[in-house]
Amino acid sequence: MNAVPGRRRPGPGYRRRRADSDPVRYAAAPGSAAAGGAGPTPTAAALAMTLGVAAACWVVAVREMTGMEMGTATRPGSFGFFIAVWAAMMLPGAAPAVLRRVQAGGGARAVPLFAGSYLAVWALAGVAVYALYRPHGPFAAGTVVTAAGVYEFTPVKRHFRRRCRDSVRSGFGLCCLGSSIGLMAMLVALGVTWMAVIAVLVLAQKLLSVEAAVDIPLVLMIVGLGIWTVLAPSSVPGLAPPM
Description:
The chain is mainly alpha-helical. It is globular. The protein has helices spanning 12-21, 42-64, 79-104, 111-132, 138-152, 155-166, 172-190, 195-207, 212-231. The protein has one domain.
């Protein structure tokens, strides 16, 4: 911008005097270049915290599941391992909600309580599954998978999925439990060999909106997998113990 003829351009001393007279207005924003940019933004800190814990849980789960690829005959192992698998499945999908929570107010300080309440809901569900789980046969596994596919198509599932994807209000953990419980039941039925596939589905449903063009083929594939598991269990990857 060209200077107005006859007027002098304000110098650095002028800016310093204005800043001294009104320090609030002229204060540097936290994390800006003027403030030194010393620390990460709340959003980056929250994302790093969530994904860091998720990565640690995945490392523990992968290390401990070695030798547990026994399909429907797999036993749940130690309770600590079971909870690590549960958290590894659920935490990556919580990252978008954590970012929304930070942006809604509270900064990174709100993340531990928010993520903790989310994990508490899933931990309680995990305790129930751990207590009730027993090794089972292909027919039981196929029945559970088929039922999970049917659940994916229900209005209840769509309601919880929308709430889990868009809301960070109280009850968020319960909504996400209602959204992903069918997919987690598939993991319990099919075994840890399917862990990565189901984790991708859980994350995708938290990132993508409800779309019939995507969801109906997914439902049909899950139901088809359930029927396949009942009719030809030996051909389903990871279902039968390795020879």
